[in-house]
Amino acid sequence: MTDRLPLQRAAAVLFDLDGVLTDTAAVHRRAWTTLFTEFLPPEVAPFTDDDYYRLVDGRPRVDGVRAVLSSRGLRLPDGTEDDVPEAATVHGLGNRKNGRFTEIVRRDGVHVFDGSQRLVDALAALRIPMGVVSSSRNAVLVLDTAGLLDRFAVIVDGIAVERDGLAGKPDPAMYLAAADALGVAPAHTIVVEDAVSGVEAGRRGGFRVVGVDRGTGPAALRAAGADEVIGDLADLLT
Hints:
Layout (H helix, E strand, L loop, with lengths): L11 E4 L9 H15 L9 H8 L4 H11 L18 H19 L5 H12 L4 E4 L5 H8 L7 E3 L1 H7 L8 H10 L6 E5 L2 H9 L3 E5 L5 H7 L3 E3 L8
Parallel strand pairs: 1-2, 1-4, 2-3, 4-5, 5-6
Helix pairs in contact: 1-4, 3-4
């Protein structure tokens, strides 16, 4: 963007987590693909990477399940968040996917993108407040495993969505809640996102939005409202 808000003048920076700070988006994609490869009947179209980016990426887990089922003309009862992973309900499928994801994280650990680590270190040195806004209910687990948990003053995640009755992305409620908790104005705050739904949430909330292209594509991020699209978070240090 030609009128980029310099980092040193930002009131705060709010990050999505998976695919922005940590290389866990691929783990989510793997878990979703395994789930729907096993669950979808053979007469409907198989789950693809395009489905992941269009229907699942950045959204609360149960919203992703509903979107994929709807795209195939399928419906399941919602059930409750306590449903066992074997249950044929929206929450059951979501819990099944979550089990796959946490198993991989605990077994293989979490990789932090080098450029993301550099940016977080630079912002900490500038004493600019940082927050994480993630639809995942595993945000604290991922941040703790990655050694980043103590860097963020605010975490608004999938657990907060359920607890506080917040609408998920692309609604701006999660980002607005994080800004409110930090006491900062959206217009002076930078949102960093890799998902179309997250970029749209930041734009609708009045934030300055940086899109990180990890596979979604620059055109899709710009169309969703990104002020700038980069390939790596270290690009914001130049």
